[in-house]
Amino acid sequence: MKKLLATVLCGAMLLSLAACGGSGGSTSEAASGGSASSGASSDTLRVINQQDPGTFDPAGVDDQSYFQVVRQIYEPLFKLNNDGTVENWLCEEYSYDDDTHLRITLRDVQFSNGDPLTAEDVLWSLQRIRDETLPAISAIQGINFEESQVVDDKTLVIATDGPQATLISRLAYPGTGVASKAAYDAASGDWLNGAAIGTGPYALKEYIAGDRTEYVANENYWREGEPAIPNLQMRHITDDTTRSTEARAMGADIIYNINSREIDAVDAVDGIHTIEELGTNTTYLMLNSKMAPLDDPAVREAVTYAINVQQTVDLIYGDFGSAGSGMVAPGVLGYDENSFQEHYGHGYDPEKAKQLLADAGYPDGIELTMLTDIGDSTRNDIAEAFQAQMASAGITLNITMLENVVLYNRVAQGDQHHMVLYGLTCSNFEADGLLNQILPGSSNSKMTGFDDPEFVNLINIGASTMDRTEREQAWKNALDYLAEANVMIPVWHKALVAAVGDNVEGFELCRDYEEHYLQTVTLN
């Protein structure tokens, strides 16, 4: 296996994994019309990702695989590079009038339909996220839209409730991609029938639900010579084992997120190879603190003793990524392995879990329900391993596997789950990338229901701290408070992987939001 990851592992746990079930995937034929090895036409780039979008609202779904679809159509004001630096994108230049007013001058850019990009489009796109309480709301925390204003067609001022130290990097979030207000209004807000007009390298050509999205080059694109390939086809295959099968059959030029167990097998196929990159996403076991019996802190603490994270990750992922060693991934500002060891270093101890449950009034154990994404076989394997381990601690765990969108809707109800096995990303390379997602009223807040006022205050302190060193400590304080509450147990720090045809040039994995730029890709 090609190794490009800096692996950070916790100390080995001594107790064995009780049991772990497997979940297989179906197979499929390679896409018709050619593949990476069959002389496919160089005017079409064929990609396989893991999520059928269902909509083309730029802010409609908070998920990396969704951004892989919509980022080809829409663009944000800024772009984050893999080294964490911020690059101006639709924003030509910016300056601060004062600590709470960001002045942005836009590039001379057209939408794919030929209409000019205006400051009104930008401010409307951002404000719509708040007004409709869309999942991308975590990226615009602190913006005061009542005080923000359009100065002229190319200038806007974004006002904030106070100093916002990470606002620029958060405005690189693909969920803040700018759409055409005029096209939206003309289509009555129908993203599947006319509203999906952006400034991105590609324009939506056709969407076949449950199958694929077809794109065509944006003839008005502002970056000269891009996209390099005029047509893009993105097939949506939810099961990672099936995507691995497609990779071995070279059914596309680029296949995202293949099953980590099959990386070596894919690498062994002539004409295709894998690339890997350390991400900023962590998979968490998220405990709903609003649902009994997890509303009792002692019961949540019992859960931390009832699972064997290190051995589970070692068994399922091997050395791909790493077991949880901090509340955020290594390399993210706020990462603190000492705090993690203090709160979770005790490891697996089912007898201690039983005692905590008995002391909390549950001598006969408890029954819980966990939600997982049906398309992520490795994550489902983790759930089944936790199920077996918890049984030894007197916890009966029922696992419900759902399509990602259905899972998200179930969680949004707030009272339909005890636990979720889910990944959250510090896409701006700082801890607020995670923390803003679980603030009350934000995109994933109901996964934990953790609305402690002191926790919110600690996040606000970090958000308004402009000095980087001081802000790092503020993030550590907030994350330490979160760890102590036992509402989010870090399980796995994610690695990114893609299978890429040997004829593909100019492609790299994006560490931030995993949106992956395709406009510079060429085929030999």
Secondary structure blueprint with pairings:
Blueprint: E1 44-49, H1 64-70, E2 78-80, E3 86-88, E4 91-98, E5 101-106, H2 119-131, E6 149-152, E7 155-159, H3 167-170, H4 181-186, E8 202-208, E9 212-217, E10 231-236, H5 240-248, E11 254-256, H6 263-267, E12 272-287, H7 297-305, H8 309-317, E13 322-323, H9 337-344, H10 350-359, E14 366-373, H11 377-392, E15 395-402, H12 404-412, E16 419-425, H13 432-435, H14 445-448, H15 453-463, H16 468-485, E17 488-501, E18 504-505, E19 522-523
Parallel strand pairs: 1-10, 1-11, 14-15, 14-16
Antiparallel strand pairs: 2-3, 4-5, 5-7, 6-7, 8-9, 9-10, 11-17, 12-16, 12-17, 13-17, 18-19
Provide a short characterization of the protein structure:
The chain has 524 residues and is α+β, with helices and mostly antiparallel strands. It is built from 16 helices and 19 strands. The longest helix is centred in the C-terminal third of the chain and has 18 residues, at 468-485.
Sheet bearing the most strands, described? 11 strands, mixed
Number of helical stretches of at least 4 residues: 16
Please estimate the helix content.
Answer: 25-40%
Rg, nearest Å: 23 Å
The tally of beta strands, per DSSP, is 19
Rounded mean pLDDT is 90
From the N-terminal CA to the C-terminal CA, the straight-line distance is: 25 Å
Oligomerization status of the protein chains: single chain
Spans of at least 5 consecutive residues whose pLDDT stays below 50 are 1-39
Task: Return the structural class.
Answer: alpha+beta
Shape: globular
Strand content: 15-25%
